[in-house]
């Protein structure tokens, strides 16, 4: 490949606490290939897994890299929340001889993917139509609960992630009050992440078992999902129903906060697996149930992201935006 051709290629990655996903991307058309998934535990450093990927696919000449990482990016030194990697951005760039190294929060990356997702990569839930120039919200339940906002500025976009998963949760029904009191015995602070995550689904399962005075041993979220989908366990199905109700309320609050007429997007690994139970849930009704502003939220569309690699795609969009400046 010529030096001129190399300029249009980059390496992008989506790095979580368990897996690191890498791809080569053509920044001209955002087409990704050479996708690989590595176990973070198998590598001592981020540098070592990035070098292993470049060597595996003979991409040593690519000098542009964008990494979406599941932790706050607050300065030059990055300390991953759920993995043992710690590194300096400037040192990593120098050691690898890169011309460009972009490090961004994983939900900032997902937010940056929203404008380029196709209709086949999202599922529209309920009513409302997106304003392409409107503010967008993305939230995702997985290992934790991530939140980010995307703001349009002419043909460019600016993504801002925070720690919205740690906002205090408030009960809205008698059942939710029971759940709150149950969790308050376990946690000093009952945040939305204590309910809207894999561990949160496990909390809901245990709390509802206690509410119905049933002895249920703790089981992982994956098993709760399987039981709910197969209709084999009323407590598992109730936990999923409660999960969707709380998710709808929270998504609706975020929509109100920034007037998200560009849409609210649900990411993460949990909701796509439960898509068959979403239509019968309270998700959309709780999203719209905002008193005097119910009509306001009724106009805001909600979507579930079904794209396989939105984090890497968003990292590529972020890099392309700076590449063309």
TrEMBL record:
Intracellular or extracellular location(s): Cytoplasm
Binding site for ATP: 13-18
GO biological process, one term: glycolytic process
Alphabetical list of Gene3D superfamilies matching this protein: 3.30.420.40, 3.40.367.20
Annotated GO MF terms: ATP binding; D-glucose binding; glucokinase activity
SUPFAM superfamilies: Actin-like ATPase domain
Catalytic activity: D-glucose + ATP = D-glucose 6-phosphate + ADP + H(+)
UniProt entry tagged with the keyword Nucleotide-binding: yes
NCBIfam families: glk
Similarity comment text for this entry: Belongs to the bacterial glucokinase family.
Protein name: Glucokinase
């Amino acid at each position: 490949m010529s030096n001129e051709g190399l300029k249009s290629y980059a390496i992008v990655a989506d790095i979580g606490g368990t897996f690191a996903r890498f791809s080569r991307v053509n920044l001209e058309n955002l087409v990704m290939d050479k996708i690989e998934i590595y176990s973070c535990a198998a590598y001592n450093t981020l540098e070592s897994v990035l070098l292993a990927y470049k060597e595996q696919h003979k991409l040593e000449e690519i000098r542009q890299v964008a990494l979406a990482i599941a932790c706050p990016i607050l300065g030059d030194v990055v300390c991953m929340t759920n993995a043992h990697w710690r590194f300096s951005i400037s040192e990593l760039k120098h050691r690898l001889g890169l011309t460009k190294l972009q490090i961004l929060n994983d939900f900032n990356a997902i937010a940056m993917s929203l404008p380029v997702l196709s209709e086949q990569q999202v599922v529209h839930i309920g009513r409302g139509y997106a304003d392409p120039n409107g503010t967008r919200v993305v939230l995702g339940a997985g290992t934790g609960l991530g939140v980010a906002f995307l703001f349009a500025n002419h043909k460019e976009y600016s993504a801002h992630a925070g720690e919205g998963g740690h906002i205090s949760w408030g009960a809205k029904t008698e059942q939710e009050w029971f759940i709150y009191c149950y969790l308050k015995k376990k946690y000093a602070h009952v945040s939305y992440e204590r309910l809207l995550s894999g561990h949160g689904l496990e909390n809901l399962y245990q709390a509802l078992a206690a509410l119905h005075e049933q002895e249920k041993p703790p089981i992982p979220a994956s098993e709760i999902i399987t039981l709910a989908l197969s209709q084999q366990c009323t407590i598992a199905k109730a936990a999923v129903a409660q999960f969707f109700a709380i998710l709808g309320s929270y998504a609706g609050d975020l929509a109100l906060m920034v007037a998200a007429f560009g849409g609210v997007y649900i990411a993460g690994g949990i909701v796509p697996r439960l898509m068959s139970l979403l239509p019968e849930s309270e998700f959309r009704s709780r999203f719209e149930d905002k008193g005097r502003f119910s009509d306001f939220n009724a106009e805001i569309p909600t979507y579930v992201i079904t794209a396989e690699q939105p984090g890497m795609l968003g990292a590529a969009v972020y890099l392309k935006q700076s590449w063309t400046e």
